[in-house]
Amino acid sequence: MDTVLLRLRGEPPQTAVFAGWSARLPETDTPLISVHHPHGQTAKIARGRVSHYWNCADVVYCGANAEIVAIHYFGVSCVDGLTSGGSSGAGAFRADTGELVGVLTGGLSSCAAPTNSDDFGWFGWVCWETGAGVGCE
Description:
It is built from 1 helix and 6 strands, in the order E-E-E-E-E-E-H.
């Protein structure tokens, strides 16, 4: 999963803006917003809704037989805008709270297939399952 957690060792610049985050799994149909920079281009925005879950270590080899205790990824069906190649690692933010809940890992949406979903790694899995969970609440 394309994720990094950083601990600041000093004061951030005064112009820094921080996003909230949540390790709670977003329910199906939760509206999400993703801001991404495909291949370093100008920021793009995609809006969608959680459509399904994946329960595997690698979404490429995953089946749709998710169990809530093993979920690693969630799929998002686009409503407005699409993610583009080169956008991996873009955040998925809840539209209602602005909290980060996942990061873009892959997917099949495109201009030719806009109804295909994109796959986001669940931020809660990063916090707890990979051992980076100190303070992830």
